[in-house]
UniProtKB/TrEMBL annotation, chains A, B:
This is Ribosomal RNA small subunit methyltransferase E. Residues 75-233 form the Ribosomal RNA small subunit methyltransferase E methyltransferase domain. Belongs to the RNA methyltransferase RsmE family. It is an enzyme of class 2 (transferase). It catalyses: uridine(1498) in 16S rRNA + S-adenosyl-L-methionine = N(3)-methyluridine(1498) in 16S rRNA + S-adenosyl-L-homocysteine + H(+). InterPro entries: Alpha/beta_knot_MTases (IPR029028), PUA-like_sf (IPR015947), RsmE (IPR006700), RsmE_MTase_dom (IPR046886), tRNA_m1G_MTases_N (IPR029026). Keywords: Cytoplasm, Methyltransferase, rRNA processing, S-adenosyl-L-methionine, Transferase. It comes from the Bacteria. One of its GO terms (biological process) is rRNA base methylation. Signal peptide: none annotated. CDD domains: RsmE-like. GO terms for cellular component: cytoplasm.
Length: 239, 239
């Protein structure tokens, strides 16, 4: 937690918050703060600054906050991700938030196991919690949007073309001929398949919707590695 | 396992191997192969090709192999990493191997907790197992070298200067003035600190040894995210 992210329900006055639970534990056990100490804070979807601890008990920390700085720029990227295996999903979500990705679509694919969609990590609360951890790591405040689409074909045929408008649209597809561009630094949409990749049918449908297939070289990367590699490659100006 | 990595002890003839344990389970339960089916294989520190299953029992799989293709090029990078927390270490090791990093130095730093060095993941066998998983993911065969240095000062003063010779030497240090270069594509050494970063004293010692401090932008990345971002940024020609 490089910055505590503050939500509307944390505020007890316009410049005062009360923190409990995870953030309190972090303040006590990791940062080991006392009354009078400061820590970086940011208001969700708002400005960043610092908070000064004015009261610390076993159950809550009260902070006076000063917010003045905007959050860092975000790469103009729409990430369209085949729903990952649950044990990877949380980490990918956190990493995506840390990298500044603000628009995440979780879609189905042939190699997405049906059980993946049952994970409790997809609840609104879990999504928010994990995105929060990613934002706190990065020192960002802009909460990403996560869209869940459990049917591949209606998504690709009915929604994807509009989503790709005015963007460079790519699908990461190992073994294809075209390398992924570098330092693109313009609005882009990037589709990343499941473990084992999109099927040829799925790649065909994504191409019909306007995506170009690109590869990342001879190495096959796990999704959790491919996402930072791709963001770094496309948006070196934003990182 | 996009490719089964073969070790000398797997060979029963120059073109035949017998696989047991994890690789057998993968062949049976994930790939669901039968006699006559093929899978990609590679010989550790050697060529890659395919194996044809000629015998499959509950306890072993026998394959006839043909190897002709060299492994992919590797980024010319020496990674010098403050020993990560054990639960992250395994993953960072696998990811580093997948990215093609061949020279890994695990060093001490003030914010490396003493207990991190006690992890069983540092045994020779565990290191080999996790690097193997990373290589199998990438379809690579060249086993990385891992060097363990539990004392910061002797390493930085006595070994590091020679290690940095003829390399671009960088230390990732959030908050410094110089951005990390992009598409360097020449031999480099990269130092990455622990959670919370190197101390100013440590950064000073690394700079004395020849490293330049660089930042990755305003976002603070976890080590497991920073490594793929940095490799992608420095070596776009190798990925």
């Amino acid at each position: 937690m490089n910055q505590a992210l503050l939500f509307p329900e944390d505020f007890v006055a316009h410049d005062r918050v009360v923190l409990r639970g995870r953030r309190l534990t972090h303040i006590q056990s990791v940062l080991r703060l006392s009354a009078g100490d400061r820590l970086p804070v940011g208001r969700v979807n708002g400005l960043m600054g610092h908070g000064t601890v004015i009261r610390l008990t076993d159950t809550e920390a009260e902070l006076v906050i000063t917010l003045a700085q905007p959050p860092p720029a975000a790469p103009p990227l729409t990430l369209i991700l085949a729903m990952p295996r649950p044990k990877m999903f949380r980490r990918i979500l956190q990493t995506s938030a840390t990298l500044g990705i603000k628009d995440i679509w979780l879609i189905n694919a042939y190699k997405v196991e049906k059980s993946f969609w049952q994970t409790p990590w997809l609840s609104d609360e879990s999504l928010r919690d994990n995105l929060t951890l990613g934002l706190e790591q990065a020192k960002d405040t802009a909460m990403p949007d996560v869209h869940i689409r459990k049917l591949f074909k209606p998504f690709v045929e009915d929604e994807l073309p509009a989503l790709l408008r005015d963007k460079v649209a790519l699908v990461a597809h190992p073994g294809t001929a075209t390398p992924c561009p570098t330092h693109l630094n313009q609005p882009a949409a990037l589709c990343v398949g499941p473990e084992g990749g999109f099927t040829p049918y799925e790649v065909g449908k994504l191409e019909e919707a306007g995506c170009q297939s690109v590869h990342l070289g001879p190495r096959i990367l796990r999704v959790e590695t491919a996402v930072p590699v791709l963001v770094s490659r496309l948006f070196d100006a934003c990182l």
